[in-house]
Amino acid sequence: MKFLTIKKKNIFICFICFILIGAFCATYFSVKPTSTPKHTYSIVIDAGHGGIDGGAVGKKTGITESELNLKYAKKLKDLCCECGLKVIMTREDMNGLYQEDAPSKKKSEMEERKRIINSSGADVMVSLHMNSFPLPNCQGAQVFYAKGSEQGFALAKSVQNSICKTFKSARTYVTVGDYFVLNYSYIPAILIECGFLSNPNEEMSLQKDDYCEKFCQNILAGVLSYFQK
Fold first, then answer.
1. Host domain of residue 107
2. What residues have CB less than 8 Å from 222, skipping those under 6 apart?
3. What is the CATH number of the domain that holds 212?
4. What is the per-residue pLDDT across 165-190, written as a single tens digit (0 to 9) for each?
5. Of the residues 71, 124, 210, 227, which has the fewest C-beta atoms closer than 10 A?
């Protein structure tokens, strides 16, 4: 009887151990997949122009493209950070990216933009600009991508579609753009002409804080939609 009692105790202990081991394994394997860090998407935000290169100039107010590009870039940065995206800015003030003693400041500036974009390790690049045209009735935002870039096209289409939902004057199509920051980016890249400073009404709208915020919200929505796909 004593032998049988000991044997039963051993069986009971083994049974308890088996249950504990099973519980541990179930907990471990249920936690392990969710404990793997998720990929954090990152974006390069490029505020076009800067320094001695002011870009286009508003006909009514004299505001420079460089100033507005930076305003939109900073707003987009804030919105992206709120969504948990990692942001790399090509410039965060009104200074140019060129070397002061460079023989060609334009070439120096573009090479620095290329360096920042391609060393960033980011998933996408968005370059912000303001448009201008001799005819003052031209208006509307338009998104450009590099020729032959399928991912650039997909990103451009996603952002353009998002902008069109709120801004009826925006172009309904995307266009191939022969721009340095697009042609020499190793990552999916787009260039956005947010509107025309040569159009008096659009010039005034582009300077409004609420317009800027809405516009950048639509850019972000398009980028997030691209990531989801």
1. 42-228
2. 155, 158, 159, 160, 161, 162, 163
3. 3.40.630.40
4. 999 999 999 999 999 999 999 999 99
5. 210
Q: Are strands 142-145 and 189-196 parallel, antiparallel or unpaired?
A: antiparallel
Query: Helix, strand or coil for residue 125?
Result: strand
The answer to whether residues 66 and 87 belong to one domain is yes
Neighbours of 136 (CB within 10 A): 15
Please count the structural domains in the chain: 2
For residues 94 and 28, membership in a common domain is answered with: no
Share of the chain above pLDDT 90, in %: 83
| Banded pLDDT at 43 (limits 50, 70, 90) | very high
List Cα–Cα distances, 67 to 39, 57, 74, 91, 129, in angstroms: 33, 10, 11, 12, 10
State the pLDDT at residue 2: 43
What is the residue-wise DSSP string for 32-81?
Answer: HHHHSPPPPPEEEEEE--BTTB--SB-TTT--BHHHHHHHHHHHHHHHHH
The encoded tokens of residue 69 equal 């590009």
* Two structure tokens written together for 75: 């707003």
Residues 16 and 51 in one domain: no
* pTM beyond 0.85, yes or no: no
22 and 88 share one domain: no
